[in-house]
Design brief:
The structure holds 2 protein chains of 2 kinds. Chain A is an alpha/beta fold. Chain A is 27% helix and 28% strand. Chain A has 2 domains: 173 residues, Rossmann fold (3-Layer(aba) Sandwich), CATH 3.40.50; 119 residues, TPP-binding domain (Rossmann fold, 3-Layer(aba) Sandwich). In chain A, the strands form 4 sheets. Chain A has a 7-stranded parallel beta sheet, sandwiched between helices. In chain A, strands 15-14-16-17-18 form a 5-stranded parallel beta sheet. A 3-stranded antiparallel beta sheet of chain A has the order 8-9-10, with no helix packed on it. In chain A, β2 and β3 form a beta hairpin. The longest helix of chain A is centred in the first third of the chain and has 17 residues. Chain B has one domain: HUPs (Rossmann fold), CATH 3.40.50.620. Chain B is built from 6 helices and 13 strands. Chain B has a 9-stranded mixed beta sheet, sandwiched between helices. A two-stranded antiparallel ribbon of chain B has the order 2-3. In chain B, β8 and β9 form a beta hairpin. In chain B, α2 crosses α5 and α3 packs across α4. Chain B starts with a strand and ends in a 5-residue tail after the last helix. In chain B, 48% of the residues are buried. The chains are: A alpha/beta, B alpha/beta. β13 of chain A pairs antiparallel with β9 of chain B, so a sheet runs across the interface. Bound molecules: flavin-adenine dinucleotide and adenosine monophosphate. Adenosine monophosphate binds next to α1, β4, α3, β6 and α4 of chain B.
């Protein structure tokens, strides 16, 4: 049913992303169940520690290398992936549903004229492959099948577990690429000021209009810092100009699936819930005990954020000092 | 220059979504449909370029007669013309892109705007696929765009920052919030839009490759516990986060 599974490994600054390792684990499990080959492909310049990917289950890696390919180039990367798939007869392709994966995977599908399922949260391979993915910002789920010979799936980060690595090492075949098509090319990455991005953080502390003003986000930043979390925001505070667009969580912001989501002074409008409802644990701090956020919170404190949050920071600090 | 904007017609983000009796689609009762919010940024950007450099903006949508409402909204904001590519069945995103690519070619538009994502199926597929089919350059999730003649610099949002992308026309851009502030349709715009005819065309037939097998409700979340009403509940919260959730 499948001939060869290909997992795309995404590198940033020459380091393989965690979400790609999750895809490696899925690829490995698939290959065992389907009894087919699996390999991984990475495009970039210098990439460190590729051998370690073997610890997550794939021991053959092809590295397409060129110094101009360190940063993403949609044109070059698309052509290289498509060519590799065709030459190696891969027929199941896995990508992480990251900014790069979301951009690249559909282009590959267009060129291979095949079906694609984006942002999958579960993949089932009884008979055919059935992918489950959220729609309407998580208000519903759909099961989809791809009726094409080649099938592409992008996997939502933080949902599939990469597990602990074994000591196995992968063999890496480096292929130098000549004259990549750089018609569209990233020339620079501008880092945002925030230390961590909501899209990738394992813990998020978000603030809403209940915080009354931009200056009170100091408290949110401090809580985020003691938790090692990213700062998020509701649309109300983004629209008010208190926080940047990149921090907005929700249906027209980012969809996040952290292990812990702390909502402070956020009412829990349907569009906000849509973006964070699949977080593993949700904490709500809101002075209105009837606020809809409490309907999906695991733990709530129906109190004044200005009184609760400083105490929370103090308690966590105390705990961390122990 | 002709500029195309592709627009989708989607449930309002405030809509309650429930699964319909066929188990494959949403129950439409009580759901109002609107222009996809990201497509407002796409239309605005096309209009800004037209205002600055001249040109003509055509809005295109694939779907049923219901999509005309969304095309009218695009006209009311300032698009010059609108085309409905009529399709009564649910097409997958690859099929929608094929229909759009055909029409964009026929219109000879060298600059095309999409939203970064349609808030119904949240795919983020159509713009990139259309670009590949047309062999146009494409930058997705764009928050800043500068076009100087053929040369283009765009900023796209990624995890933890922005990528500065250099490319050239012909080009597809998918718009992210932050690119601009969409204008409101003026009363005059709304009146004029009512008078304009929406051209209807039939796209080439297409067989879906992405098959929807079932639609389900997301697993229900257990209603949580309210631990207290002031900071005296904090130690219990910290204990639960540590012992039950194991996150700190
Ligand atoms: C097309 C569209 C798309 C949208 N997309 C998004 C989106 O992506 N993300 C998003 O977040 N929203 C989105 N919204 C907006 C959404 O409908 C809400 O308006 C928004 O989420 C409200 O933000 P909020 O919870 O911060 O503010 P409010 O709803 O005003 O809530 C503030 C909360 O703070 C509480 N509070 C006040 N004082 C205190 C205090 N001292 N201590 C503790 N609590 C306090 C109040 O009880 C209240 O519950 C969208 C809306 C539309 C129409
Ligand atoms: N039926 C459609 N007709 C025209 N444009 C569409 C249609 N569906 C999606 N699009 C465009 O493609 C973008 C991305 O949609 P999607 O790939 O479905 O998330 C949308 O923001 C629209 O600009």
């Amino acid at each position: 049913m499948a001939n060869k599974i290909l997992v795309y490994l995404e590198q940033r600054n020459g380091i393989i992303k965690k979400s790609s390792l999750e895809a490696v684990k899925v690829g490995k499990d698939f290959s065992e169940k389907l009894g087919c080959e699996v390999e991984a492909l990475v495009i970039g310049s210098e990439v460190s520690d590729l051998g370690k990917v073997g610890g997550y289950g794939i021991n053959k890696i092809i590295h397409l290398k060129n110094s101009d390919l360190e940063l993403y180039s949609p044109t070059a990367y698309t052509k290289l992936v498509v060519q590799h798939v065709q030459e190696n007869s891969a027929d199941v392709l896995l990508f992480a549903n990251t900014a790069l994966g979301k951009d690249l995977a559909p282009r590959v599908a267009a060129n291979l004229d095949c079906g694609i399922a984006m942002d999958c949260v579960a993949l089932d391979i009884e008979g055919d492959i059935t992918a489950t993915r959220p729609v309407y910002a998580g208000k519903a789920l759909i099961d989809v099948k791809l009726n094409s010979e080649i099938k592409i799936f992008t996997l939502r980060p933080n949902v599939f577990n990469a597990g602990e690595p074994t000591g196995d090492s992968a063999s890496v075949e480096v292929k130098e690429v000549s004259n990549p098509d750089l018609s569209t090319k990233v020339v620079e990455i501008k880092k945002s000021e925030g230390k961590l991005d909501v899209a990738e953080a394992d813990i998020i502390v978000s603030g809403g209009r209940g915080l009354k003003g931009t200056e009170n986000f100091k408290m949110i930043e401090e809580l985020a810092e003691v938790l090692g979390a990213a700062v998020g925001a509701s649309r109300a505070v983004v629209d008010a100009g208190w926080r940047p667009h990149g921090e907005q969580v929700g249906q027209t912001g980012k969809t996040v699936t952290p292990t812990l989501y702390v909502a402070v002074g956020i009412s829990g409008a349907i569009q906000h819930l849509a973006g964070m409802r699949s977080s593993k644990y949700i904490v709500a701090i809101n002075k209105d005990k009837d606020a809809p956020i409490f309907s999906i919170a695991d733990y709530g404190i129906a109190g004044d954020a200005f009184e609760v949050v400083p105490k929370l920071i103090e308690e966590i600090k105390k705990l961390k000092a122990e | 220059m002709k500029i195309a904007v592709c627009v989708s017609h989607v449930p309002d983000t405030a809509a309650k979504i429930s699964v319909g009796s066929d188990g494959k689609s949403i129950d439409p009762s009580g759901v109002t449909y609107v222009l996809n919010p990201y497509d407002e940024f796409a239309i605005e950007e096309a209009l800004k370029i037209k205002d600055a450099q001249g040109g003509e903006v055509v809005a295109i949508s694939v779907g049923t007669d219901a999509n005309k409402e969304t095309l009218r909204k695009a006209l009311a904001m300032g698009a010059d013309s609108a085309v409905l590519l009529k399709e009564d069945k649910d097409r997958d995103s690859i099929g929608i892109a094929k229909a759009l690519a055909e029409e964009i070619k026929a219109q000879d538009a060298k600059l095309v705007f999409f939203g970064k994502q349609s808030v119904d199926f949240d795919n983020s597929i159509t713009g990139q696929v259309t670009a590949e089919l047309l062999d146009y350059n494409c930058v997705t999730v764009v928050v800043d765009l500068q076009i100087n003649g053929e040369k283009v610099t765009a900023e796209r949002e990624i995890e933890g920052g922005r990528e500065i992308v250099e490319t050239s026309l012909p080009l597809v851009i998918t718009a992210q919030k932050g690119l601009n502030e969409p204008r409101y349709a003026s009363l005059k715009g709304i009146m004029q839009a009512k008078k304009k005819t929406i051209e209807e065309k039939t796209p080439s037939p297409y067989e879906n490759m992405i098959e929807l097998v079932a639609m389900k409700r997301p697993p229900a979340k257990q209603p949580g516990k309210i631990l207290g009403e002031d900071s005296s509940a904090v130690p219990e919260l910290v204990r639960l986060l540590r012992e039950e959730a194991k996150v700190i």
